[in-house]
Amino acid sequence: MCGIVGIVSNKSVSASIISALKKLEYRGYDSAGISTLINGQIKEQKCSGRVDNLEKILFQNPSSGDLGIGHVRWATHGVPNQVNAHPHSSEAVSVVHNGIIENSDTLRNEYKDKGYSFKSQTDTEVITIMLTDFLKQNDLINCIHKTLKKLEGSFALGIIFKDYNNLVVGARRGSPLAVGYGHNENFIGSDSYALKSMTNKISYLDDGNFCILYKEKVEFYNSDKKKINKEIFELSYEDNTAEKGDYRDFMSKEINEQSYTTKKCINEYLNTSKNEINILNLPLEAKKIRKIRLIGCGTAYHSCLMAKYWIEEFTSLDVDADIASEFRYRRIKLDPNDLYIFVSQSGETADTLAALEKCKKNNLKTCGIVNVLESSIARNSDLVLPIHAGPEIGVASTKAFIGQLTVLYLLTLKIAIDRKDISSEEYSKLILDLRNIPDLIEETLNKQKDIQEIARDFIKAKGTMYLGRGLSFPIAMEGALKLKELSYIHAEGYAAGEMKHGPLALIEDGMPVIVLAPKDRFYEKTISNMQEVIARGGKVLMITDDTSETMSENIRFKFQIPKTNSSINSFLLTIPIQFLAYHVALLKNCDIDKPRNLAKSVTVE
Ligand code: M6R
Questions:
Q1: Residues 287-295, mean pLDDT to the nearest whole number
Q2: How confident is the model at residue 238 (pLDDT cuts 50, 70, 90)?
Q3: Which of 118, 228, 244, 405 gives 20 to 30 Å between its CA and that of 477?
């Protein structure tokens, strides 16, 4: 949540800060701001709303200055207005912050007692005041060090100082911060993606450390203010697919990329000549694993849930899927013989990262399934399995979900064959079926028009339900999440068998209900549940691979997915539920790529 950027250069920095902020907007978009140092004075400009608004302000009142910081906000403390927008500045310093200062109330009172007054409701402003206060009696390094020591919670910071006209400071604890190296200019940013157009040479600040950027060098300090060296990585320019091209928005582009995503992922992991899955060095030998625990948030949690069904289907292992924000605080019996798998597109989700840290502290074996290879989860996991989806910009996760499913399915098959839980004939057949999935996804993507038609039914709906059983249940959950976040319509994903235990009471005449009913071993049961919904007036959108006409007169609409092996129907069921959420949101004029109140990367708890 929140994106920060800082640049020190030999030329004016405001245009570069604005363009980096636009890349960071996926992290927050309720206000934006910039501070630059001009002739020894801090100039702060900020506004509520998007970076476009800030750009207009800068157009009217341009900012020169060869060093500066910028921010896009996802509000935690204080409403998203201009006063609470970052930067927060005194005459002496200006600060941008990503994270939450947990002891801000205590610090506020302490500094109020010292005679300081506060302008905003934010937790961040205490940092500005503390730096201002410490500067009075300390040199720069001690001022930063003493301030950071007093802070509790998580932060990534960008700071400029009135009296230090050649440097920008970056610091982190808990929240990520990348450092970029240019020619006569250096950068900090919440992620390397924001800096990609300016440099491909990157370091990552370690937890508790801070750095000082000068235009010709970068100095790194650890939490004891000792100077340290940092490794520099070269980012590849491959996969630089973060442009919309001819698409209306990133989400439609990313939905349409899913056939390619699965193909690429399968190619990366599958040695086709030997029919082997290249997942080597599992932190625990497959045969020795006692139990698998999968952990994630939101869509990534739904991938975990899907994998739980697959692991149960194909292996003899015990398996659990957990929501990271619950896992991190539960009194779970952690066992060194268990494998802990963390799924996250961004690799920076605070709860997932904290759950991983809990496991690391207990010396457990961890595996991270991520899209962003430079992320904290990737860097802290014993084994990293990338999903190879390329940058996902739309806040609603689509191609990352399909990528996560692909890797999780391959991992399941790898564990199953290594444990000899499936025969080599069954394994070969399952691999063959998976290799056909990209084409079947493509075929399903071409049927978008069918869903476009039915989307109208949902515009005025008070609410809706997504029903599925067995392997379709996680996709029902995912469908409901997509509709909620994109179109702001209340939606529930339910195990169809649960309907009679309460939710059936919600069904009334004309209520749209989505039923996921592929012809698998749950089909008949799902159809019975569907009949119960129809009998109470529900208007059913049935998504199925069943080609028979039997149900046609009773259901409002039937969306046909291609036939495949029933264990991987989920790949194909995913496409119509994404399209449905997309088209309903479009009809309701919602902001597709930036739904209200949300952010792409949830780096606060
Ligand atoms: O980056 P992550 O995969 O860890 O993000 C987890 C969730 O915040 C994310 O999947 C969220 O639920 C999406 N907006 C759903 O579309």
A1: 97
A2: low
A3: 244
- Give the whole-angstrom CA distance, residue 244 versus residue 254: 9
For residue range 128-159, what is the model confidence (pLDDT) as tens digits?
A: 999 999 999 999 999 999 999 999 988 999 99
- CB-CB contact of 20 with 70 (8 Å): yes
Same structural domain, 522 and 553? yes
Alpha-carbon distances of 221 from 68, 153, 208, 340, 371, rounded to whole Å: 21, 20, 9, 33, 29
User: What was the pLDDT predicted at 577?
Assistant: 98
At 239, the pLDDT band (50, 70, 90 cuts) reads very low
pLDDT at residue 84 in the model: 95
Domain ranges, residue 366: 245-435
Angle between helices 51-60 and 14-24 (to 10 degrees): 170
Give yes or no: 600 in active site: yes
Asked if residues 338 and 289 have their Cβ atoms less than 8 Å apart, the reply is yes
Residue 44 shares a structural domain with residue 183: yes
Question: Half-sphere exposure (CA, 13 Å, Cβ side) for 86?
Answer: 36
* Choice among 253, 308, 358, 600 that is catalytic: 600
Is 308 found in the same domain as 272?
yes
Given ligand 1 and candidates 303, 342, 343, 349, which is best to mutate, with the most ligand atoms within 8 Å of its CB? 349
Q: Please provide the DSSP assignment of 350-376 as one string.
A: HHHHHHHHHHHHTT-EEEEEES-TTSH
| Amino acid making up residue 353 | L
Examine the domain organization and report whether 274 and 414 are in the same domain: yes
Q: How large is the average pLDDT for residues 460-473?
A: 96
Do the domain assignments include residue 440? no
Hey, is 553 helix, strand or coil? Answer: coil
3-state helix, strand, coil split of the chain in percent (to 5) is 40, 25, 35
What's the structural domain count of the chain?
3
Is position 500 annotated as part of the catalytic site? no
Pocket test of ligand 1: the residue of 27, 190, 250, 297 to mutate, having most ligand atoms within 8 Å of its CB, is 297
Tell me the pLDDT band of 236, cut-offs 50, 70 and 90: low
> What is the pTM assigned to this prediction?
0.82
Helix (H) or strand (E) run with residue 43 in it: strand 41-48
pLDDT, position 220: 98
Pocket of ligand 1 (CB under 6 A): 297-300, 344-346, 349, 352, 395-397, 481, 485, 601-602
512, 72, 31, 485: which is closest to 251 by C-alpha? 485
Nearest ligand 1 atom, CA 396: 16
In this predicted model, which residue has the larger pLDDT, 253 or 273? 253
